[in-house]
Amino acid sequence: MREQILAALSQYGSPALFAVVTIASIGVPLPVNLLLIVTGSLVAQGVMPLWLAIALASAGSILGDQIGYAIGRWGGTALVSRFGGMLGGPERLAKAEAHARRWGGPGVFFTRWLVTPLGSVINFTSGISEYPWMHFLLWDVLGETLGAALYIVLGRIFSDRVLALDAALGDFTWMILALLAAVVLGWLLWSRLHRP
Amino acid sequence: MQRPPRLLILVVAFGVAIAGTFIFAFKAGRHARGLHVENEPIRPWMSVPFIAHTHHVPAAALYHAIGLEPEPHDRRPLKAIARQQHRPLEDLVRDLERALASAGHTHPAIEPPGGPAP
Predict the structure, then answer these.
(1) Is A158 in contact with B35 (Cβ distance < 8 A)?
(2) Chain-centre distance of CA A116, in angstroms?
């Protein structure tokens, strides 16, 4: 799949870029970060202008995110009422929704470009928790534009080292996720040990 | 069977997360050092101009090496070129490798088609 996607980008350029980032943002696991880095390399080779690459990548991602949000908002309730028990019951779900509302904005923003593996899940949970759509859209536009610009510009700078750059950024993202998990678990552990 | 206490699960999960942080930090650092390595492997999705760019050689030299006339807008991946020329991809990659070597570049590794993901 990965080879076909990159071959399509190499051969067809911007339409392939837009299609792949849209599908990936809905939740299909595709190598988007590598795709954006390779796009940066194509920009450096003069295949497409930088502004167009960033605009298309951002627009595709935002469109896919909105679809994910809509699925969560209008299809999520049915899923929750059916599988809610498996997720800890209505009380725990209400708590999770409250958290999603409270951290919604920064949660949406940082999962667009820093902890990208969580992006699709956040789209879905934002929809389920009925996080205000205008707020979601605003954070989404900011995060996706920054994310697209960041990866494409890095790809442009390291245009002859795309595979090494993708590997480094991939591991960096997982390091951030592991660090976040360590902070949350450490806090839980600390509060459990210091419970009166 | 008795379930392990929640505190133990929490301690183990915390340990795994800490270990994961260090492992991925180490791996990211190692890959970042790889950014200074001279050349990248050739992959089936790459086009001839893309390979020329990543190896800093003229695309025309690579096109001639695989028996094609240079075309500025030809972005076909190697896989498509091999299919059109009715020859195995490995054959095409070998010709490109020779052309790059004669231009003074050597490869750290040539990935086979569908080779391991980085």
Answers:
(1) yes
(2) 4
In chain A, positions 42-81, which contact chain B (CB-CB < 8 Å)?
Answer: 42, 44-45, 47
Both B79 and B29 in a single domain? no
Domain that holds residue B9: 1-36
Do B44 and B27 fall within a single domain?
no
The number of distinct structural domains making up chain B is 2
Residues B25 and B75 in one domain: no
Tens-digit pLDDT profile for residues A160-175: 889 889 989 989 989 9
Residues B53 and B78 in one domain: yes
> Which tokens go with B40?
């990248």
pTM here is: 0.81
Give the lowest-confidence range in A31-45, B5-19, B37-51. Answer: B37-51
What interface predicted TM-score (ipTM) does this complex get? 0.76
Tokens of B99: 């052309």
- Maximal CA-CA distance, chain B: 73
